[in-house]
Amino acid sequence: MTDEERRSRLGVRHGLAPSTRYADPVAAATGLTALHTTEVASVPLSLRARVDGVTVDDVRGALERDRSLVVQLGMRRTLWTVPRDLRAAVLAGPAARVAEAELRRLAKDVEEAGLAADGLRWFAGVRDATLEHLAAHPEPLSVPQLRAAVPALSARVVRGTGRWTTPVWVATPVTTVLGARGDLVRGPNAGEWWQPRPTWTTTERWLGTPPPLPTAQEGYAELVRRWLWTCGPGTEDDLVWWLGSTRGAARAALAQVEAVEVRLEDGAPAYLLPDDLEPVGAPERWAALLPTLDPTTMGWRHREFHLADGVRPGVYDSAGNGATTAWCDGRVVGCWVQDEAGVVEVVPLADVDRASRRLLDAEAGRLTRWLDGVRVTNAYTARQRKSAPLP
To answer: Would the N or C end of the chain have less CB density within 10 A of its end CB?
Structure first.
């Protein structure tokens, strides 16, 4: 499996080449398996790059009216937007692992803060009070509203170590655990589309009676099956990193989906689904401007096959989190920033030919018009503005 074929697959499966666009937000999220949602603005921006003519209202419609997309804490303790039919697999596998670890941490914090001698018993009481209040309330509530309604949520615990410790409202880790367990689900975002203002409600009120959960092994297998279609071929390291799972869980899932081992161009073993061994064929030339933590940027742990020489420091931090990226024909060749007026500027970090630059400039114009003056900022783009040389 050559790097060229992997880049072709990326362009086709991720809906980035013009002829491979997805029909709507749900189809795109399904094709990508899941959308990173740590940065709330990334979801509309990721979908804009793959669904022609999509609007913020279309995305909000899928999330808030149709509820065909659901925000769920899961892999690597990260927020994701997933198709509704995939939520059960996330809950059974990665989210259950996160919930267990977060509950242990919360119980310890509660005990160390002197809120209760038994942190698990304390949590059970607060869980019941929170769920009872939300079940009786017709509208989703923000964390400040929950704190006002359930006094125990206004206690504070200390998070961090050494000089980096900070007090936090206990409501935050409580909703984290309840969300990871699937007791709560995120409702509408109360802010503008680029502002994180989450609200919470019960799963039953938002989604109806949930389907029975699969086993953890079945959940991991379903995620691996979809990820291999989206990102295959991928290595075991890629999969363990993306899932945030143990190596044993990843190997069991690979065996369950009967993944076939192939060799990458560098000789490393990787995996494909058994019915996905034929080349997909190179698409037409394409360029894309993707947002912070885009699912393509974050699809693999080992990214050399899609990074132009010297680009990594300008688009990934030391933890492997990707900022904005500029792509040409399956390679990251730079990033993008906005000026004070909101105009998108491409920042090449590698040599690109004139045809590629024309494609990138055209994408910058389209993204500028789509953003319509909105400036999307976060820690990653701020770092890029300081470090990336302008063309």
So the answer is: C
